Structures are given as structure tokens and as C-alpha cells.
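Input record, target 12 of the design panel.
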């Protein structure tokens, strides 16, 4: 096992620990999942309703500049929706041709915050919008990462600000001798994740 593999294993272990912490917080805030839906205990939901800031009060507390810039923020729904449409078509057409495992949009786009009773209707709308757009970015990034892993799994010469889950196992920049083998290994990870021993998207 290489040093990179060891680091990736440590990262996955830390992610598992983080998920355990999230589960502990779920218990602390007394909610559970039933058929994929979040269900709060009755008294906790009642407390949430009592803590909700009513819309007019919320509006009075809002800075004027926030109101003025809101249309600019919400106008982005058009390019986001178009990106969603074209990327989904791209995956449906190209991934089967390449043999790449498809990205499940439900793993990335979560729209569930509007069920929280302590949010007013405008806050819920904002949360739906943010949940969709940020989830979409993750969905697209995973799709793009699998595409890059299939066609050009080479690290960049300089450090990049952020990278997808496959980048760490790309071939080193300048490693001409290892490129062909690295390309085959990278393609195996995303077309046959069970054989590679690595789950796609981790």
C-alpha cells in the first residue's frame, strides 16, 4: 500500500468518525428517519414552532442591501437549472458508452431543511434554494471527477485550491513511464469499483 493509499484510508476513517458524530447529534436533537423522511419527536417539534421568527419580524430585521441583492441571487436558478439539465443528459448518454458508473443525484441533492418547524416560509424557501444549488455543484463535481479520472487522470504541476475525491490517485505530473498503467488503474476504479476495492465517490 502506497503512502497515498494510507492517507486516503485515514481520510475515510475520519469521515466515518465524523458520520458517527453526526449520528450522535441526531439523537441529541431527537429525530429519526422513517422511510427516508425526518421525523422529530412531538415535544421537540412543538418547541421548534414556538421558536419560529414570524415573517414580518424577520423582514424588519433584514438589512436593506440583503433585500436589494436577493433578485441577483435567485436569478442564478436559470443557469443552475440549465447546467443540471445538460449535465444529466451528458451522463445519461456518455457514461454508459464509457462504462462509468453513474452518479446518483439523490446522494448529493438533499432538499429537507424546509421541514424544520422553526423556520418561516421565506427561510424555508432560501434553504430549498441553497440545498438544491449546493447539492447540484457536488453532483456536477462528482460527474466531472469521474470524467477526468477516465480521460486525463494526471495531477497538476501546481497545487489546486480544491479537488475531487479521485484526484489524489491520479498519476504524478511528469511521470511519463507510469501514465499508461495509471490511466488503466484510474479507469478501473470508476468502471469496476468493486474490483478496485475503492468505492466511487469516496
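The sequence produced for target 12 reads:
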Amino acid at each position: 500500500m502506497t503512502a497515498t493509499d494510507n492517507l486516503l484510508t485515514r481520510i475515510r476513517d475520519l469521515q466515518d468518525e465524523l458520520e458517527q458524530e453526526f449520528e450522535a447529534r441526531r439523537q441529541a436533537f431527537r429525530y429519526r428517519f422513517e422511510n427516508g423522511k425526518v421525523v422529530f419527536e412531538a415535544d421537540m417539534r412543538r418547541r421548534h414552532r414556538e421558536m419560529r421568527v414570524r415573517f414580518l419580524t424577520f423582514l424588519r430585521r433584514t438589512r436593506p442591501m440583503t433585500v436589494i441583492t436577493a433578485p441577483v441571487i435567485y436569478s442564478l436558478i436559470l443557469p443552475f437549472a440549465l447546467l443540471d439539465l445538460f449535465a444529466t443528459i451528458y451522463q445519461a448518454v456518455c457514461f454508459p458508452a464509457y462504462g462509468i458508473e453513474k452518479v446518483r443525484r439523490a446522494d448529493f441533492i438533499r432538499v429537507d431543511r424546509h421541514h424544520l418547524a422553526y423556520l418561516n416560509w421565506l427561510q424555508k424557501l432560501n434553504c430549498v434554494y441553497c440545498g438544491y444549488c449546493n447539492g447540484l455543484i457536488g453532483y456536477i463535481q462528482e460527474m466531472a471527477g469521474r470524467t477526468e479520472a477516465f480521460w486525463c487522470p494526471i495531477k497538476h504541476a501546481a497545487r489546486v485550491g480544491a479537488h475531487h475525491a479521485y484526484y489524489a490517485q491520479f498519476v504524478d505530473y511528469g511521470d511519463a513511464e507510469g501514465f499508461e498503467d495509471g490511466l488503466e488503474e484510474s479507469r478501473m476504479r470508476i468502471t469496476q469499483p468493486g474490483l478496485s476495492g475503492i468505492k466511487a465517490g469516496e
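Residues 121-151 form the longest helix (31 residues).
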